[in-house]
Amino acid sequence: MRVLHQIHSYILTRDLPISTLSFCLSKVISFCALSPLGNILYAEKLLYQTPSPNIFSWNSVIKGFSQSQILSPTQPFSIFKTLIRKGHPNPNTFTFAFVLKACATLPAFLEGQQVHSCVIRSGFCSSSFLQSSLVNFYAKCEKIEFARRVFDDMQERNMVVWSTMIGGYTKVDMFNEALDLFGDMQKAGVVADEVTMASVVSACGGLGALDVGRWVHMYIKKRKIVMDTKLSTSLINMYAKCGSIEKAKEVFGEMSAKDSRAWSSMIVGFAIHGHADDAVSVFADMEKSKVKPNHVAFLGVLLACAHAQLVSEGRRHWDILLKSGIQPSMEHYSCMVDLFFRANLFDEACTFIKNMPVDPDPAIWRTFLVACKKSKNMEKGELAGQRLLELEPSNPENYVLLSSFYATCSEWSKMGHIKKQMRDKGLKTVPGCSSIEIDGVIHEFVLGDWSHPELNEIREVLSNIVKRVNSMGHIPNVSEVLHDISHELKEEALCEHSERLAIAYGILKTKAPVVIRVVKNLRVCGDCHDVTKIISRLYEREIVVRDRVRFHRFVGGTCSCKDNW
Prior knowledge:
Elements: H1 2-13, H2 18-34, H3 40-49, H4 55-67, H5 75-86, H6 93-105, H7 109-121, H8 128-140, H9 144-153, H10 159-171, H11 175-187, H12 194-207, H13 210-222, H14 229-241, H15 245-254, H16 260-272, H17 276-288, H18 295-308, H19 311-324, H20 330-342, H21 346-354, H22 362-375, H23 378-391, H24 396-408, H25 412-425, E1 433-438, E2 441-446, H26 455-471, H27 487-495, H28 498-509, E3 516-520, H29 526-538, E4 543-546, E5 551-555, E6 558-559
Parallel strand pairs: 3-4
Antiparallel strand pairs: 1-2, 1-3, 4-5, 5-6
Helix pairs in contact: 1-2, 2-3, 2-4, 3-4, 4-5, 4-6, 6-7, 6-8, 7-8, 8-9, 8-10, 9-10, 10-11, 10-12, 11-12, 12-13, 12-14, 14-15, 14-16, 15-16, 16-17, 16-18, 17-18, 18-19, 18-20, 20-21, 20-22, 22-23, 22-24, 23-24, 24-25, 26-28
């Protein structure tokens, strides 16, 4: 910097014309703003001291602040506003692109919209360079409808903007739209790269579309797309989320280099599939490989210990977490609470919650309430329910859980009071929705929805299932139905749960040994869990159900969760 100061001083002592002075100082400003050896604050000071600074100087400082990791993230937009106020020089496409990139990083939606307005007023709205920047900005802000409008207006689309748009859809869980756009990208003859394919693979995982995911994996191999760490990790996540943990393990084993994300993805994959010993083993291998476990890896191993009731292993890994320097998140605390409750260590769970350095969040109180439901502990259950309603008075899930708790304890009047509160607040529950992939097509079923084109065939299969299951002595657990209706209607309501419709469709359309794979948006209820076990034995079918919490693999009348989920 001393040399720069000397150069700056030398330039100022020369009697240079304004235009020449501005040009010379712009080079100093650019170096100060963009070079690792420079100083962005000094560059900003020079910018404002320069008589008639050119647009190159303004752009350099805006870009410099955008790249800075330690200074105010809003500074690029602030400098841009100063430029607009001065009215000279006029911003160019690079100016807008640098500011939009800064707004995307924050993200700062309102500020970026103002920049977009300036782009339009400046006559640059047809610039493909700026259109790409706008698509990236809106996608990063999760305003996908705005991104798509700009995308559709583009006359020329390169691979980057296709990738950005597909990634934007995946980020906001619009997985079908992401896969549809990937199809359009192929039709347009644009060759995807590893970044695009990572988003496509993630979309397959979000849908639980294993057949499509396998095809995408083959496409990657056929096109010889670079299998970098991010893409490999996406494949691990996809196969794990689609219920094929062995294939996830295979991809993991083929990786030549594994970062913390790859390790943690494999650990979480084993955890949600109920392979607790494998999760603990992979965590140990991660430590031996000198890769520092991240918070997700700890979350995965604690989740595995909780589901399998590995109390000593859970305590040991909790101690490792505390010594690692990573600040435990509420999710980590929730795993430990869940572990103690599952192991029937009620007092230890309560003590752990009491000694937490942070106030328990709703997730922990929900775990508490579920434990009280299992043990029918009215006193503590009501306490947990009250805390839930205080923390999240507008979350219908809490009212449903508390209603279910009261129903289990045969407190019908209290259950009715909770349901009345829901009605008075206008709260509605999220309907159960399950999907199944048949020949690459996703079929969705919603609780009680009979709009499927193969309705009659599904009804026939479902009727046959009910008869065969009941002949095995199954008694429907109608306590899962929180409606004031007759016993017979409650049994009928259970039969129309979305996962049963999806399983019936799987039996209708496929034959053994094809695995029936179902994805559900909510937790599987107890009665559906019992019925699916019976179906797997009666029909000699392997059924894999991915609910909101974990995977259930039903084979021969048993479930991988060992009836503890």
